[in-house]
Write a structure and sequence with these properties.
CATH class of the largest domain: Alpha Beta
Strand content: 15-25%
CATH superfamily of the largest domain: Aldolase class I
Order of helices and strands: HEHHEHEHEHEEHEHEHHEEEEHEEEE
Structural class: alpha/beta
CATH architecture of the largest domain: Alpha-Beta Barrel
Radius of gyration: 23 Å
Distance between the termini: 41 Å
CATH topology of the largest domain: TIM Barrel
Strand order of the largest sheet: 7-6-5-4-3-2-1-8
Largest sheet: 8 strands, parallel
Number of domains: 2
Bound molecules: alpha-D-galactopyranose
Length: about 400
């Protein structure tokens, strides 16, 4: 091979570039899926949804160890607003529910080392049924003013819903709010909530919307059937999630009483292996120890929050058994094996099905039993109906 002086110069230049790049500070790690709380699944618009409740939730984040486990956002949902905008056109808090105002609530939450999230809709009013022929005001056509109000209240997160959208194209509506939020200069996490109607996985995670997450499904309810439906719709969308931009199969129901603990463990495992947002949907002031233990499973949370930011891929969906594999930053793999059916099932998973070399030597950690063993990467287990087993497999 003849090496010309020109090609030598090019090589030297690219080497210099490599050295430079290595010397420069590393790019910031992508944001992992958001973790926190939202009141909707536990209260809907009932009167108990008020500032006293939300302050109590912030207190519980600390006393129950949720902040230490990574939960950060305390978010409030529909029905926080007053029926009308003020005379100045600005949104205002419902004076019965939030007499101290939204800014004071945000301050209380920030004093706990937490972040505060609010809700609106990319429509003329929000989703709650109209009362006295009036809905809660939505953001459509008011994006700039509303974003400025949110920033002035020290809001860190906006869930932006899809009701009463007047058939204005979704991309237009969500772009308008995304741009308005950015133009405030305050970092506000943008959570798109249009229920998967306009295939948001194709556009919501990219500029100009650039949302941190987008709902892929209709509303979850506190039943195994609902959880299963949302799981199935979301699990096949893995290739559209990118680090910092995640599919959102809706908030958690863990602790609300409509599923068994086995089912709630599946719910939490499946959401984590899918790198879904982990937004607690139960009233933490009255949560039972079993549900809290699920939400505090640090081994499972670490899978959801893994810095690689990749959604797990379903490698098997047969006979009611789902196997999902998620690559992790340290080179290990998380595996969830879920028995959808109503009968117990013995399951075997080979190393190659997980994407591992056959005959290797691995450490296998059971993320619910919190036990560890050496193995060749094959998994064998007996699963109860609706149960999920979850593992972390590493070769070091
Ligand atoms: C929609 C959303 C829910 C919730 C309600 C509030 O249904 O999908 O998550 O925010 O609106 O009205």
């Amino acid at each position: 091979m003849i090496i010309s002086p020109a090609s030598l110069r090019r090589t030297a230049a690219s080497l210099a570039f490599v050295v430079c790049a290595a010397g420069a500070s590393a790019a910031p790690a992508p944001t992992p899926p958001q973790m926190g709380f939202n009141n909707w699944n536990s209260t809907h618009c009932r009167d108990e949804f008020n500032e006293q409740m939300i302050r109590g939730i912030a207190d519980k984040f600390i006393s129950l160890g949720l902040r230490d486990a990574g939960y950060r956002y305390v978010n409030i949902d529909d029905c926080w607003a007053n029926w009308q905008r003020g005379k100045d056109g600005k949104l205002q808090a419902n004076p019965k529910r939030f007499p101290s105002g939204i800014k004071a609530l945000a301050q209380y939450i920030h004093q706990h080392g937490l972040k505060f999230g609010l809700y609106s809709s990319a429509g003329t009013s929000t989703c709650e049924p109209l009362q006295e022929n009036r809905g809660f005001p939505g953001g459509l056509g008011h994006e700039k003013a509303d974003a400025a109000t949110f920033a002035s209240w020290d809001v860190d997160y906006l869930k932006y819903d899809n009701c009463n959208n007047q058939k204005v194209p979704a991309l237009k509506r969500y772009t308008a709010m995304a741009e308005a939020l950015r133009s405030t200069g305050r970092p506000i996490f943008f959570s798109v909530c249009e229920w998967g109607e306009n295939k948001p996985w194709l556009w919501a995670g990219k500029p100009p919307v650039d949302a941190g997450s987008w709902r892929t499904t209709g509303d979850i309810s506190d039943s195994y059937a609902s959880m299963l439906k949302n799981f199935k719709q979301n699990v096949v969308l893995d290739r559209y999630a990118t680090p910092g931009h995640y599919n959102d199969p809706d908030m958690l129901e863990v602790g609300n009483g409509g599923m068994t603990d086995v089912e709630y463990r599946s719910h939490f495992s499946l959401w984590s292996i899918m790198a879904a947002p982990l937004l607690i949907g139960t009233d933490l002031r009255t949560i039972k120890p079993d549900a809290l233990e699920i939400l505090l499973n640090k081994d499972v949370i670490a899978v959801d929050q893994d810095p690689l930011g990749v959604q797990g891929k379903q490698v098997r969906d047969a006979d009611g058994i789902h196997v999902i594999v998620k690559p992790l930053k340290d080179g290990s793999r998380a595996v969830a094996v879920f028995n959808e059916g109503d009968a117990p099932h013995d399951v075997a998973v080979s190393a190659t099905e997980i994407g591992l070399k056959a005959g290797g030597n691995y450490t296998v950690r059971d993320l619910w039993a919190h036990t560890q063993a050496n193995g060749d990467g094959t998994l064998k287990m007996s699963l109860q109906p609706h149960a999920t087993a979850m593992y972390r497999i590493s070769n070091h």
